[in-house]
Design goal:
alpha+beta; 7-stranded antiparallel beta sheet; 6 helices
């Protein structure tokens, strides 16, 4: 498929147009950022690792009735996806207290959250991606009440599927971030209408993953926290997640 102009470049991916206006090409970069891009670097092979992991997990979602933007993987670090209008929200699901939740609430690292916590963040780098209340969601008109209900339901279903899957990989899914988009054909309204489907990626960049075979709080980390916290062996952690994920049949 012919690749057209660059449409968007983010911290971890580049989107290109194709000859089909309803299909885009996603290129996964090796670039790494943390703390709202205040820390920058590169993780060798990250683009290929994350593309492979996301491909497998998108297929897992589809097999379990979760619609996604994924079409196919065209190159080790590239995939074709459906063109969607991304909702300006990050949906975060937390199974275990870690990261900013501990920093902001005083919860002890490792506290089990029952039921899992589903949170919404405003996808806005200039504002620092702030946590949103339901009233703020309404005031900002970022999603309709019906869409919010759909997002909570989808995120909860995805969490159960991923938790069970990673358990088979010997990995604990601590928390993760999801992004969703609305399907609309070219020529339709640019408003956030249409079917909501899972977009972006599912990878060690967007998930907090702990190796169940390790008890040491630092050695068990298998995600971008290794980059954030200068724990070292980042590439090895990403590669190990990829190998474990790809070993599991869908």
């Amino acid at each position: 498929m012919a690749v057209g102009q660059k449409l968007y470049e983010g911290k971890a991916k580049i989107l290109y147009a194709t000859e089909d206006p309803n299909i885009l090409l996603t290129h996964f970069k090796d670039d790494a950022t943390a703390f709202n891009a205040q820390k920058k670097g590169s993780i060798t092979g990250k683009g290929e690792f994350n593309c492979a992991i996301s491909t497998h997990l998108f297929k897992l979602m589809e097999a379990n009735g979760i619609p996604t933007h994924f079409i196919d993987r065209t190159f080790p670090n590239e995939m074709r996806v459906k063109s969607v209008k991304i909702l300006p929200l990050e949906v975060v699901v937390r199974n275990i207290a870690a990261g900013s939740l501990c920093q902001q609430t005083g919860l002890k690292l490792g506290t089990i959250l029952t039921p899992p916590l589903v949170e919404f963040y405003y996808k806005n780098d200039e504002l620092g991606d702030p946590l949103l209340t339901f009233d703020r969601l309404r005031v900002l008109d970022l999603a309709t009440p019906d869409q919010v209900d759909q997002l909570i339901e989808l995120a909860s279903r995805i969490n159960q599927i991923l938790t069970d899957f990673f358990q088979q990989c010997g990995i604990t899914l601590v928390d993760f971030k999801l992004e969703f988009g609305c399907v609309s054909s070219v020529g339709q309204s640019a408003n956030h209408t249409g079917q909501i489907i899972l977009a972006d990626e599912i990878s060690p960049d967007t998930c907090r993953l702990w190796n169940q075979a390790e008890s040491d709080p630092n050695k068990r980390v298998m995600d971008k926290d290794r980059f954030r916290r200068d724990l070292g062996n980042v590439e090895d952690a990403y590669r190990q997640v990829m190998e474990r994920v790809l070993q599991q049949t869908i």
